[in-house]
Design goal:
By secondary structure, the protein is an alpha/beta fold. Strands 4-3-5-2-1-6-10-11-9 form a nine-stranded mixed beta sheet, sandwiched between helices. A two-stranded antiparallel sheet has the order 7-8. Helix 3 packs across helix 5 and helix 7 runs parallel beside helix 9. The N terminus is likely disordered. Bound molecules: uridine-5'-diphosphate (UDP). The site of uridine-5'-diphosphate has 25 residues, from helix 2, helix 4, helix 5 and helix 7.
């Protein structure tokens, strides 16, 4: 017995293609239909390092809108380092846990800024916060978040994990697993992948095309913090590190192009390196 007659399916999920998932409308050139993008607070500040640069946010928002228009389901975890980082703020009379809550509130400001600009572009967007803030954001409810994605709405996750002493990288790893993302994209500022030393300081630094989770941990490479990385490794969540400043990068990753650095399992890394050596 069918629980939902076919003609009712469209009524139950208005806005989604033929009553199905938004991702079902993706063309054959789309290899990743559900992505989680981590945007650091620094990225929101542009060259100013602090506060919000609306031009920069508009550029992210237009890229996100373009990728969504290809039928991709997009969730975003935003950082807050452009306003407050808990560890740096603590100590000057403010208790550390309190400073971390301030950091989480900072991520809500970034989430609302991004939502405002996405909506101005006509892209539907919901903000879900891990800290209760019902006047401005929905509470984080996993099943509701996935329903928004299925309907083609961009979901911005704010307030990290909701717990002090964690980071928004950990929130990104957690949410990517929870929503069943195909890939976690770590969007960096002015760095196009993972290097053996800082390319902005050492021009001879070498870029890695692909690394296993174990190699990143062993060599203490800068991808994300250890808690986030361990979680991603346990759940075999592929991570792509790329430069968000280059327009079109998110779209390329969605198409399956090998840009930036892939961090994944031994088999996935070996397959990518084989492909690269075969094509050179
Ligand atoms: N934070 C926290 N718990 C979380 C996520 C973030 O306490 O689950 C606090 C922490 O103090 C952190 C700040 O929020 O320094 C801003 O987040 P993060 O440093 O990860 O932002 P980003 O570096 O990505 O801008």
């Amino acid at each position: 017995m069918e629980l939902v007659p076919p003609d009712m399916a469209a009524v139950l999920s208005p806005g989604s293609p033929a009553g199905g998932r938004w991702g079902d409308s993706a063309g054959p050139d789309v290899r990743r239909t559900r992505i989680l993008l981590k945007l650091s607070g620094e990225a929101f500040a542009g060259d100013q390092c602090q506060g919000l640069d609306q031009d920069v946010i508009s550029r992210f928002a237009s890229e996100v809108s373009e990728v969504r228009a290809r039928g991709v389901e997009i969730a975003i975890v935003v950082g807050g380092g452009n306003f407050v980082r808990g560890a740096a703020t603590a100590g000057s009379g403010i208790e550390e846990a309190q400073a971390h809550y301030m950091g989480m509130l900072a991520t809500v400001i970034n989430a609302l800024a991004l939502q405002g600009i996405l909506e101005r572009l006509g892209t539907p967007c919901r903000v879900q916060s891990a800290l209760q803030m019902q006047a401005v954001a929905e509470p984080f409810i996993r099943r509701r978040a996935t329903r928004h994605l299925e309907k083609g709405r961009v979901v911005v996750f704010a307030a990290g994990t909701g717990n002090p002493y964690f980071t928004t990288d950990t929130a990104a790893a957690l949410r990517a697993t929870e929503i069943g993302a195909d890939v976690l994209i770590m969007a960096k500022n002015r760095v196009d992948g993972v290097y053996d030393s800082d390319p902005n300081i050492y021009p001879t630094a070498n870029k890695y095309h692909a690394l296993t989770y174990e190699e990143v941990i062993r060599d203490r490479l800068k991808v994300m913090d250890l808690t986030a990385l361990t979680h991603s490794m346990q759940h075999q969540m592929p991570i792509v590190v790329c430069d968000i400043g280059v327009h079109g990068n998110i779209s390329r990753i969605v198409s399956g192009e090998d840009i930036g650095t892939l961090v994944s399992t031994r088999d996935a890394v070996a397959a990518l390196l084989d492909r690269i050596s075969g094509s050179s």
